Amino acid sequence: MSHTAHIRSHRKPRRSASRVAMRAGVAGGVLGTLAVAGTSASSANAAEPVTQTLELPTLTSDLAAQVAQSADATEQAAANYRLGAERDAAASKAAKQARADLADAKKKAEARKRAAEAARKKAAEAAAERASRTAERPTLTASASVGSTSTSVSTATGSAAAVVSFVKAQVGKAYVSGATGPSAYDCSGLVQTAFKQVGISLPRVSQDQSTAGTQVSLSNLQPGDILYWGGAGSAYHVGVYVGNGMFVGAQNPSTGVVERPLSYDPPSGAVRVL
After folding, report:
1. What is the set of domains in the chain, with CATH numbers?
2. To 5 degrees, how large is the angle CA 54–CA 55–CA 57?
3. What's the mean pLDDT when you consider all of the chain?
4. Calpha distance 90→152 (Å, rounded)
């Protein structure tokens, strides 16, 4: 037995305890210092307690600044990404609108081109028709006027005089399509009725009347000759030459039966049936 076994220890027994101390600073997931200490004493004469300390990096001001800069950079990158996305969307929308505007402009240009082409074609057709009518309608020259005047000086006699007298008596009466008198006429109805007075039966329509007799020159007209406008066999109007460069015809609903000079509406040709 030890000679010191009966002597009480001068050390006071330590109480059982466990202590955990933690100090942390969070900035980008960095911890400060974590210390763990544990002691245990099973009896009054137990051994000295064991203490263990774990040292972690301390959050310094430089590291905090770096973390803040990293956060700022991340936020700026996100803002730049959003701005780029917005710009891309705006550019895409603008490009789409530009394509739509271009397509619309092309359609309008094509429509204007078609309209202009149609107008040119219509004008060309009208000019060709006028030229055709002019070619079919011989111009009354001075010699023709002299010739017609010289023939009109002589007094119409016989059947020609009766035809001339009849058509002049109808001047002032109404024009009615299809009418043959006695109060109204159309152009071929007047001519047919006039020649009926002298026992000559003529076809009813202008086209046939323009070929009913012998074709004569406009420079050699005589009272009683039938004048026609348009081609022989396709005439659209007829009248009766009454001498002195004048003719009588049922012109249209607004004028009715009138007496006019040949220069008023030069005829295309003439036929003689008397």
Report:
1. 17-41+48-59 (no CATH), 142-272 (3.90.1720.10)
2. 145
3. 77
4. 89
Q: Provide the token pair at 53.
A: 């300390």
Residues 6+ apart with CB under 8 A from 163: 194, 195, 197, 198, 223, 224, 240, 274
Q: How many Å from the N-terminal Cα to the C-terminal Cα in the chain?
A: 186
> Model pTM greater than 0.70?
no
Distance separating alpha carbons of residues 63 and 59, to the nearest angstrom: 6
What is the b/e burial string over 183-216, where b = at least 16 CB atoms within 10 angstroms of the residue's CB? ebbbbbbbbbbbbeebeeebeebbbebbbbbeeb
Judged on CB neighbours under 10 Å (0-12, 13-18, 19+), 248 is buried
Tell the residue number behind the tokens 């071929």, with chain if given: 188
Q: What is the pLDDT of residues 96-127, one digit of tens each?
A: 898 888 888 888 888 888 888 888 777 777 76
